[in-house]
Amino acid sequence: MSLLVTGSIGIDSVKTPHGKVDDVLGGSAVYFSLAASIFHPVRLVGVVGEDFPKVHVDTLAKRGIDLTGLETRKGSKTFRWRGEYEGDMNEAVTLQTDLNVLDEAGPTIPEAFRDSRFVFLANTHPALQRELLGQLGGPELVVCDTMNLWIDTERDQLLELLRSVHGIVLNDGEARMLTERDNLVAAGRKILELGPQFVVIKKGEHGTALVSADGVFVLPAYPTDEVRDPTGAGDSFAGGMMGYLARAGDWGRKNLRAALAHGTITASFCIQDFSVSRLLGLDRDGVLHRLREFCDMMRFE
Questions:
Q1: Which end of the chain has fewer surrounding CB within 10 Å, N or C?
Q2: Residue 301 has pLDDT above 80, yes or no
Q3: Has residue 1 got a pLDDT over 80?
Q4: Tens-digit pLDDT profile for residues 2-59
Q5: CA nearest 120: which of 274, 285, 237?
Q6: Comparing C-alpha atoms, which of 134, 145, 141 is closest to residue 27?
Q7: Mean pLDDT of the 293-298 span
């Protein structure tokens, strides 16, 4: 089952209470791809500038990610982000953002990718997400991400997008902002009225909630005691979730719930080191071992 992701590819500089790194591999599509590729092959669509280091391309290629849709744009520079985390590290403080190539025209999905069956539209302008979706030939599952900026400034475009997707992944603050509902179950049900068939609400260290016509399903976060860099946690969660669903071949009730668990565990590895370092050394056996521990933690009979 083919799995495609579109989103940002960038170069990050990050500081946390546990150290700092400069000019490391980042971007929503990168974290997603490395996480999803643990479970299933991934097709990556994105744009970088001429300054994008070849070592980063090699890193992605070594994980078997199909880079046919990676465009290196002449005369342009790669997206860059610099941020810092303090205290409990629940939220990043953005110190500098250079959109560079992301402020230009979006990528084109290669002809060979247009038959993709499972699609994840990582966070970017909802108009661009709609444009990219329009290049595909009727995928079986489309899931999108968004952020508070688009909810605030591009609500109409976002609402139009929501009528065209099967699912959405967003955090608790975004869910409340989008729906003006404080209760997250009520917020999830309100989002269902906007078009999606399921809503995944991320609550950081408090886990995730899945709201659909089948009801509500909740999971805690995996209780790791080693958190060095939360960057990319949400995208690696989505990658683990979508990678599992693509491997399973359908997104019925049982598989959706299992996918949330796989996403939760994948993200728990990501935050244990800076950038994508922990994901690069992770395989499916490692995820399954921690998943068994996770299941045992929740067993109470």
A1: C
A2: no
A3: no
A4: 999 999 999 999 999 999 999 999 999 999 999 999 999 999 999 999 999 999 999 9
A5: 237
A6: 145
A7: 94
Q: Name 143's Cβ contacts closer than 8 Å, sequence gap at least 6.
A: 119, 120, 121, 165, 166, 167, 168, 169, 238, 242
Q: Phi and psi at residue 25, in whole multiples of 5°?
A: -65, 135
Alpha carbons 244 and 236: distance in angstroms, whole number: 12
Q: Which two tokens stand for residue 129?
A: 């997400």
- Please state the φ and ψ torsions of residue 128, each to the nearest 5 degrees: -70, -40
- Give DSSP secondary structure letters for 73-134: ETT---EEEEEE--TT--S-EEEEEE-GGGGSPPP---GGGTT-SEEEE-SS-HHHHHHHHT
For the beta sheet containing 118-121, the strands, ordered from the edge strand earlier in sequence to the opposite edge, are 66-73, 43-49, 3-6, 118-121, 141-145, 167-171, 198-202, 208-212, 215-219
pLDDT single digits (tens) 230-282? 999 999 999 999 999 999 999 999 999 999 999 999 999 999 999 999 999 99
Say what the pTM is: 0.95
Instruction: Supply φ then ψ for residue 167, to 5 degrees.
Output: -150, 160
**Pair of tokens at residue 149:** 């900026």
Q: How many CB atoms lie within 10 A of CB 103?
A: 9
pLDDT at residue 52, rounded to an integer: 97
DSSP states of 254-276 as a string?
Answer: HHHHHHHHHHHHHHHHHTTSSTT
Looking at the DSSP bridge assignments, the partners of residue 219 are 208
Q: Rounded distance, CA 232 to CA 92, Å?
A: 11
CA 204 – CA 234 distance, rounded (Å): 8
- On whether the CB atoms of residues 37 and 283 are closer than 8 A, the answer is no
Say which residue the tokens 């990219």 belong to: 132
Question: What value does the mean pLDDT of the chain take?
Answer: 95
Task: Classify residue 239 by burial, with Cβ atoms within 10 Å: 0-12, 13-18, 19+.
Answer: buried
Measuring CA to CA, which residue among 27, 48, 19, 70 is closest to residue 236? 27
